[in-house]
Structures are given as C-alpha cells and as structure tokens.
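Sample entry (340 residues):
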Amino acid sequence: MTSTRPLHLAAELATGSGRAGPGPDTAARTVALARIAEAAALDFLTHDDSFAGPGLDALAVLARVAPETRSVGLVPTVTTTHTEPFHVQAAVATLDWVSRGRAGWRIAVSPTGAEARLVGRRPAPPAAELWQEAGEVAEVSRKLWDSWEDDAEIRDVATGRFVDRRKLHHVNFQGATFSVKGPSIVPRPPQGNPVTVVDATRPAARDTAAHHADVALIRAASAEEAAALRAELHQGARAHGRDPGQLRVLLSLTVDLDAYEGGPGALAGLIAGWHGGGAVDGFHLVPAVPERDLERFTAVTVARLRERGLFRTAYEGATLRDHLGLARPVSQYATAGAGA
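Predicted structure, serialized as tokens:
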C-alpha cells in the first residue's frame, strides 16, 4: 500500500537522554547539527531537557541556534511542573519571533521527588495530576498567545501609541494549581500559536496529547501497535472537539546506525513501510551518537526516501506549521470585541 500523505521527519539534538553538557563547543556543535538537518529539509529538531541533570537550558540553546538557521523547526523540551506558565509561554513566543515562525515546545513533567527537592516548592504529585497540570499550561499558553490580536501593534510614532489596547485581552484563567490574568507581555507569535509537541509514550500523557498537541510522539514495537496508538490519539482528539486531521503522530525511534541490521538503507525501508501503511505520519529519530548518526541518516536514509518520492527535496514554506501542514489558528479573542 502506498500513501500520498506527506512524510514528516524530525530528529533529537541532545546527547543521550538529557541535556547536552556545558562547554565552549556546545553552541558550535548544536549549530553544526542543526545545519545538517536543515540541509536535508527535516521538519524540526528537538532538544531534550530536564531538572535531573546539569547542562544548558534547551530553550536557550535553540534560541542561539535560531539566527544560524533559516528553515528547520526548533522544539526545546520545556518542563511545566516547577515553572511559571506565564514565563514559559513568553519564552516560547519569543523563540517563535527570534526564529521567524519556526518554534515549538515539547511539554514535559518532573515526576520525581529528587527533581522536586531541587526546586523546593512542593512534592511531586502523581503522574496523572502532573499531566493534567501540563494540559492546563498548554491551554493558558494558547490563550496568552492569542491575547494580543494580530493587528494589536500600532507603532504610531506621531502619536506615541505602540499598541491598540482594545485588541489586548485578559485571559482570566483559573487552573487547579495556578491562575493567570494576562494579557501576555509578548505580541502574538508569527505562527499564532507555536507548535505544541507531547511525548505520548506513557498512558498518563495521552489525554493531554489528544487534547492539546499538534504533534504527538509515540513508541511502538510494530506497525500494528503504532497504528492502534495513532487511532487512540485521533479518537481522543475527536472527543475533545478537535479535528484529528490537525494532529500529527510521529514514531520516536532510537537509532544506532553502526549496529542496525542493514544500516541507514534498511531504516529507509522501515520508514517507508510504516508510513505507507498508515501507521504513523512520520518519524522522530533519536540518534545514539548525533554527530555520527544524524549525518548518516540525512545522507543515506533521507536520500533513499527521496528516491521513492516520499520526502521533500526542499522546504515548501517558511514556518514550522507550514512544514507540518498545520493551519495557523485564528486568535480566539479576535471577535471578542473591544475591552474584552
């Protein structure tokens, strides 16, 4: 069975399962990897992060990468458990401005007591509560991104007016663990809403992914298992009143191209088969050794996929939403009226 659906490809930048270690070459290394991915027209790059280990903040790292690249999407992991939602959304919106519409964020939670003790604010709640809170952070972030209408900025030098206050809106959000009045301090991002990515590998995260994610990452041992997870996420999106066609489901796959039977060529066959059969919308590659495996993946695997006519040869749009085929959302406050 051959699919005419676009194939989406993404890759992880961080070494191992956590942050890249600090050092004078960190920025140069990350920029070099991002340029390799961009030359292959990958949809986006993720950068893992957590409170569990030392290293540079993923969002700051990708903000450094943004001016050194032109097209590839940039998706840092952002932990919602011990951070302030208002500041989180402002930082992600700023990354979208810095990258000219190429930003996303991969929502993560901090489930361990050790991470909670680092911050010292509260003990770690159960996973289900953490993901419920993460969903509320995603919801209020969308509201805050929308709290500036697209044409709210006036920038009228003659009158000294920067913004039309009638087009700024209080969000007045009340969640289970936090409240936000708004509006945001950052104008509406170029994409309207930066792309929200959720790792839906664990069952506790799946409802949050179905409700809020533009991209859901899954892991599966077979195409059948992946297809079942994709169907579950689509069903959940529909139950939340969403169009499942606006949710991309990517298989997250750790690859060691020195030890795969068949190497990068065989990987192209696996990707083509799973995508063609409708199991997933694409693949998120986690290279065992990014400097080695990302280059081999782009040079061989992507080339084989292009030979089959399955993957783009160049970017066809400017934003991450363009790459993913996702519509730019209209501000939910655009028709709310003056003084809302």
